[in-house]
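From the thread on structure requests for the teaching lab: each student submitted one protein with a one-line request. Submission from student K.M.:

"Model Iron-binding zinc finger CDGSH type domain-containing protein from Dyella acidisoli, tokens only."
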Amino acid sequence: MVSYTPAHTVPSREQALHALYEAAELEHCLMCTYLYAAFSLKTSVNEGITQEQLEAVTRWKRSILQVAIEEMGHLMSVWNITVALGGAPRLGRSNFPLDPGYLPAGVVVKLAPFNMATLQHFIYLERPADSTEPDGEGFEPERHFVRGANGPRLTPMGINYETVGEFYQTLGNGLRGMVEKHGEAGAMCGNPALQLSKAEVSLPGANKVICLKTALAAFESIITQGEGAQENTENSHYQRFAAIRSEYQALLAADASFKPAFPAATNPVLRRPPRPEGRVWLENEDAIAAVDLANAAYGLMQRLLAYTYAVPAPDPDKCLSLDLGIGLMRALAPLAERAARLPAGPSNPDCHAGVTFITLRDTSPLPPGPSARRFFLERFQQLTEAAERLTATGDPRTIAAASVFKHLAQQAEQGFDLSRPAPSAVASTPAPAAAPAPAAPASTVEDGIEQVEGEKLTLRFEAKRCIHARFCVTGAPKVFLANVQGPWLYPDAMDAERLVDIAHACPSGAIQYKRRDGRPDESAPPVNLAAVREAGPYAFRGDLRLGGKPAGFRATLCRCGASKNKPFCDGSHHDVGFNASGEPPTGTSNEELTARDGPLQIDPQMNGPLRVRGNLEIISGTGRMVARVTSAYLCRCGHSQNKPFCDGSHAKVGFTADGA
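Reply posted by the TA:
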């Protein structure tokens, strides 16, 4: 087992933060290399592959993107641990390709298109500690060396490790030593309000680190799910990449000419490189424009994520900057795919371009407050204008990216309040004496539903249905306390009638109630509705029967195909960059319904759509009527070309989901 230095089994806080910064850079780099390979994959039979090959490639892309999303979760875990130790998250990294010594010799990181060598490299990076998997051809280290010092050092230095899993085990051991030396409160001295949690984002790594146990659990989750997992760990990154390799080999055996991806450049760069070895200088103007805009979006995403960690909860800037940062991935993805389909230029006639993932020289968070908000608004406007200019090519991917930029710019314009003082300025203003905190009401949890008895009503919360629409914490902040440990539901802190209105506004049905004052409980609405949310789920309202069982009167059901809590939405549409309009066209035949209410049967079909039976008006996100039906099949794989209706695409893309 490696250690920080031969004489330091317990790292200093400086050494621990240095190691965590490397962990963050490593996760960040892996995520970018996986995305780069995924963006190079072909998406149509018009690109030189058969229908059978396309179905396989589509599965591979979906699997690689999911791995990249999980790497983002690992990165968030590392950031939260960094904050717990009193540090600020490391958002930046070295540009590709990394110079020798920046990581151990055996950890080579560079951007490369999807092919067998690149896939084997991914398998090698994610291999278990006792694996004999070789690295991919062409990924051999430029230099062979062993990092580390021969004696104790005050200056933090990189430590050596054979596998990434071994690295994380070392970090966990060092953290145990710090807690033994300083005590848990002394070691974990950071402000937990700066961390990210499930309240802000639906990622597996979004768990607050408040003690040694939660920190070690985060490290263990990274190892178990990804780098260093045991060879037989089901659904680990290693297993998923190995499964792709098996299918790839079979398709190559059947057709030796099979090329699943475009020949995107290995380590593309936007400027003439002072060190040209191992790099491809992009010269094609269309490719440069697409890559430049993608890089600008990537840089703004880094800025927003850094800002997210600089703003304490529950400041509204925290959630908004996070949503905008993640949303930028939905713009970057089509631009990166566009680049992989364009030639690199005359100096490199045999390869295509590719997004370079240039990182900013400094990604430190902007000072929270009006100046940062103004910066973000200006930058969104610049990116939106640049994207609009690119639409002149008529390329559908560029047009899709422009639409995302426009939507995000509007979201930023509506959310960033330039007149609101910075959090520090607010804190410096003498505050009136706080009223005594109300006694914490007793809560019970049964079948995943938390329940708190109030004087006039019983408040109920079903976490698995929550999509963090935030009507509760913004409309009733004294009833629903965000980002606190312990009791957080206080039903008597607001007038019961107003609280009932807040519950009815919750689109997912996560918030429910039962009256105790003789007033009527919630009843079915007079019109059954299914609203199509922009780049998000279906929001149903009616007397809902899900799989034959009563499901209340409100529910948000997945339509991107990525939720891990199907049929309910869990926010995964943000993570996978789902891009689908909330304003589908009005149908050509929409006769009046003889009745507009009544039971609404929703039956998820095995590996298929949502079958809906009953009187239903399908509406756009703005309330415009799209269709009136008494029976319909609604897409939930995310791939229909006739959204919101199913067109059979689930069979083509290999969509899997349980039935009713």
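TA comment: The CA atoms of residues 559 and 636 lie 4 Å apart. The first helix runs from residue 13 to 39.
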